Amino acid sequence: MSKSPLHPNPPLSVSSQDTMAPLSPQLPAPQNPSSHSWASRCGPFTWGLSCLLALQHFLVMASLLCASHLLLLCSSSPGGLSYLPAQLLASSFFACGVSTVLQTWIGSRLPLIQAPSLEFLIPALVLTSQKTPLAIHTPGNASLPLHLCKGPGCHGLELWNTSLREVSGAVVVSGLLQSMLGLLGSPGCVFLHCGPLVLAPSLVVAGLSAHREVAQFCSAHWGLALLLILLMVVCSQHLGSYQIPPFPWKPFSASSAHIHIPAFRLLSVLIPVACVWIISAPLGLSIVPLQLSAPTEAPWFWLPHPGEWDWPLLTPRALAAGISMALAASTSSLGSYALCGQLLHMPSPPPHACNRGLSVEGLGSVLAGLLGSPMGTASSFPNVGTVSLFQAGSRCVAHLVGLFCLGLGLSPRLAQLLTSIPLPVLGGVLGVTQAVVLSAGFSNFHLTDIDSGRNVFIVGFSIFMALLLPRWFRESPVPLNTGWIPWDVLLCSLLAEPIFLAGFLGFLLENTISGTRLERGLGQELRSSFTAQQAQMPQKSRKKAAEEYGLPFYIQNLCSWIPQSLRCLCPMPEDPRDEEGGPSEPGETADLLPGSGESCPEPSREGFKSQ
Fold it and tell me: For residue 184, what is the enclosing H or E element?
């Protein structure tokens, strides 16, 4: 595996000779060298720097994982688990590690980190909150309020473990449904009809959807949270263009005269987290939450295997919650694919990449549910926001994150160390990365005619209703009651998923309200779908772009043996008459955007170019 570079600012692709070429004739490569990123001018960085980037992605992913588990376990009574919380975290880390490695190897091929998300947490909370028995049973659509039984025997150990088994069963159902949708080619077909007016509201709502949870964690100590946020902003933005030599202690030499690294930007997560974590320790502010603490020490080595505690419980309620998990997680993951490709200045993912990506995510969720985890795996929005902070993304880094997760999955004692991360650190890290996702959603609006009354209505209605409906159902004094509990669970879960609501409403309005292609952001010069881009690119550039999402060469040879009904997972065959210079192997380099070998100019301000 080759070394992992940063991605360059101009939209570039990969070829077997590691040369760079623009992907579209409408977007020529800039002549000013200051517009290139560090990697495109200085080549790939070392394995040591790759490990540091992977460590930071791991910290962001661990913050999301610990936060989601903490929010779920907060609804349990003290001592409500029959096994150690560290083992619960370890099983989730193991499933996330497997899913991350598969995602970058045979999935979408984007450097996406897999982690639990709010799309799994909301149905899980709905499922656990409807514990039986109820104090008052009201038939039909009666308006009498329902009160959960809060007696001594209602929330005992057996009842809570049964609820977690139901949640694990729902995770298995969601994984099976996601895999089935991917094998049928549904995600790719849907993604082709998702223009900027569908992606932009989804990303905006994705950035706003976690503000309550972020505020809850930051409220543990606002001083530490604000300090962390300030350090992350200063390192990634104010000092982002400040470059230093990679080895400042070595004597000056002509060969390394122009080699500089934007260290503060590349370490804009590690430096703030380390500083705040160190400050909080002597002040006694690094308090392990009660829900993640354990009276006994976790084992150093533990091999996760299905059915260790108990098998997932499949009930009609679990089936309903699993359906809502699958729909919401699929919506979120498709938005992550589009955002990651945009930040790396790559073309939008083709249908076969979306189909493989969701199929792999489904397998990860099935594994997580069988291991007893109450959370599935999905592409992590905070980690995609971290790519924007670093202005760097590589499959090599994602592979390293997967290996880190596998290592922690085998050692619950090491996983338990992460519970000592102060809650303000969790809130600060998630707050900054979610803000980046929010801004990326706004950046998609410039692709459309935002002055159009049609577009103004679609954007405003999708965002407002996606934020209104969950709050309405959350604060309603009368719970939804249709007379059939599984149907109640399904409706309550879907109507409480902001990302699903924004994506669904945007997709429905965008494809049912008439409008011109230029008005919708689908004009000739505004790239939105993979098909539209493919029609504009010359064959050589189109081939290079296809290699980014193509399967490794030794796996792509197996596509001819795949049944016709599953060909949606394989790239479309190219016309051999259009090939130039012989075939090249899509998987012969693990780096997304290798740099060139030209010398480095003086340090300069760098940034993304909008597509």
Answer: helix 157-184
Strand partners, 379: 114
Who's near 266: CB < 8 A, 6+ residues apart?
A: 49, 52, 53, 390, 392
Is residue 399 pLDDT above 50, yes or no? yes
Give Cβ neighbours of residue 430 (< 8 Å, ≥ 6 apart). Answer: 60, 63, 64, 67, 210, 213, 214, 217, 382
Give me the mean pLDDT over the 403-424 stretch: 88
Other Cβ atoms closer than 10 A to 295: 6
> Which residue from 311, 290, 258, 303 is spatially nearest to 423, judged by alpha carbons?
290
Mean pLDDT of all residues in the chain? 76
E strand intervals along 435-581: none
In this prediction, residue 336 carries a pLDDT of 94
First-residue to last-residue Cα distance in the chain: 29
- pTM for the model stands at 0.80
pLDDT tens for 236-273 read 998 888 887 766 555 555 444 456 788 899 999 999 99
Our measurement of the distance from residue 161's CA atom to the centroid of its chain's CA atoms, rounded to an integer in Å, reads 28
CA nearest neighbour of 228 among 170, 281, 181, 270: 270
Cβ of 158: how many Cβ atoms within 10 Å?
Answer: 11
Are 411 and 302 a contacting pair, CB within 8 Å?
A: yes
Residue with tokens 């998609």: 444
CA atoms of 91 and 302, how far apart (whole Å): 10
- Residue 129 has what pLDDT? 80
